[in-house]
Sequence to fold (288 residues):
Amino acid sequence: MFSKTCEYAIRAMIFVAHKSKDGTKIGIKEIAKGIDSPEHFIAKILQDLGKKGLIQSLKGPNGGFFFENETLNYSIADVVTAIDGNKLFSGCGLGLKECSTAKPCPIHNEFKKVRDDIFNMLQAAKLTQFTDGLENNLTFLNRK
Amino acid sequence: MFSKTCEYAIRAMIFVAHKSKDGTKIGIKEIAKGIDSPEHFIAKILQDLGKKGLIQSLKGPNGGFFFENETLNYSIADVVTAIDGNKLFSGCGLGLKECSTAKPCPIHNEFKKVRDDIFNMLQAAKLTQFTDGLENNLTFLNRK
DNA sequence: CCAATAAAAGACTTAAAACTCTTTTATTTA
DNA sequence: TAAATAAAAGAGTTTTAAGTCTTTTATTGG
Fold:
């Protein structure tokens, strides 16, 4: 469904959203450990998301990654679009360059429905709603 | 959603299903042209599907790929499973090795729903139902 | 049984994704 | 203002997916 890069990105964003609840910044080492990802790899990914304005960071002692309040309103769909583009949401399921209602591939309509469902689901999943849940072991992000 | 290999596989299977309607065999060159894929690449893919029993082939003059009647009852879900495995249908959306109702990732339930929808949709799409539609330009498989 | 045909098989190359390592830059605090 | 800290940047490597090329094997019709 997503690239590995994108999976790491989503996990990291949810992780930081949780930790960033009270405004604290969180370092890349802790993030990497928390989501079980290679440190330098997730660093690159978060740098990229930072440039695109989806997350904030500060260098130096007590630095790290965090969210300004507004950015917590971004959704997982926004993260996916930033990393993997919109192929998942709008591309043809069979990989055809041109595929539309007017000139559909054989499974165009069925695909359109599930693609829309996926988009709506991810669009509804705002980062704010992940500020709870991790600490009380309801959910997990670093299981191997 | 699918690997390119899997996209080619699905397109080829639908294409052959259509051409195989009256029992004729269809050569790899025609398939490659019909679905706009590299000839040797789709050949390998169909060899693989052949070994797994999802499609039949015969060498020599008038040889080619075709379906025995029973194999037309395979679904696109079967093709996807044969090529990409069942990760799409049963894997965790965030790539976690262990993710279940008992120990869910933060978006487990939402993902389970769309994964099930995708599976049901692809399971319902039997190859038999693609034996019409291509010829009268209702659908297309080789658009660039 | 021979020549032509067409898939099977295997070895290979290319391209993209995933991941690593080192150096640089910014920030803080003593 | 110097030392420590932590992200940014850049240049790599490794691995996997995608695609190509050549040789072999099976089948058929003359």
Remarks:
- Residues 27-29, 43-44, 46-47, 50, 57-65 of chain A lie near DNA strand D (CB under 10 Å from a C1').
- The mean pLDDT of chain A is 91.
- Chain A has one domain: 4-135.
- The helical segments of chain A are 4-19, 28-35, 39-51, 76-84, 87-90, 108-124.
